[in-house]
Amino acid sequence: MQSNDARTLLSCAVPTAVVGVVAVAASSVLAGGKGAIGAAFGTVLVAAVMTIDLIVLVRTAKYLPQLFQMMGLALYMVQFLLIAVVLAVFKDTTLFNTRAFAFSLLAATLTWIAAQTRAHMKAKILYVQPEAEDERKPAREKEASPAGSAS
Predict the structure, then answer these.
(1) Sequence-ordered list of residues with C-beta below 8 angstroms from that of 112, at least 6 positions apart, any chain
(2) How many C-alpha atoms does 86 have within 13 Å on its Cβ side?
(3) How far is the C-alpha of 32 from the C-alpha of 51, rounded, in Å?
(4) 67 in helix, strand or coil?
(5) Which of 52-56, 92-96, 101-105, 135-139 has the lowest mean pLDDT?
(6) What angle do CA 87, 52, 33 make, to 5 degrees?
(7) The model's pTM
(8) Alpha helices, DSSP H only, in the chain?
């Protein structure tokens, strides 16, 4: 993982964790212990899914750049389906408060997306590989010298 990718991951995980802590605290006050468990589970689920997807996308960009966009769309669908399956499985659970779970899931997802958008906007990633000075020199000399001159 490159340093800018690690910075992106960190700049997404930290705000999401802060929102998770706030959600757990608010849920424990409003819904008791089951609310805190639900909020913690929602936050951990979002952080895990988003982290795995970011790592997979970074590796895809590194090794198979031609598949980058397709992989991004596929990962989006996998995220959506995985969270939908978890919501369906835990729809009628009594292990935790489902409202606290749902609201913390929503808050953590929106926080992660906003943080990732901000991180990508602030990242200074080269989109053109700069040429080395030695590689550019012969091309410049050819352009600068008039036709028929010895250089």
Answers:
(1) 12, 15, 16, 46, 47, 50
(2) 18
(3) 29
(4) helix
(5) 135-139
(6) 45
(7) 0.76
(8) 3-63, 68-89, 98-122, 133-144
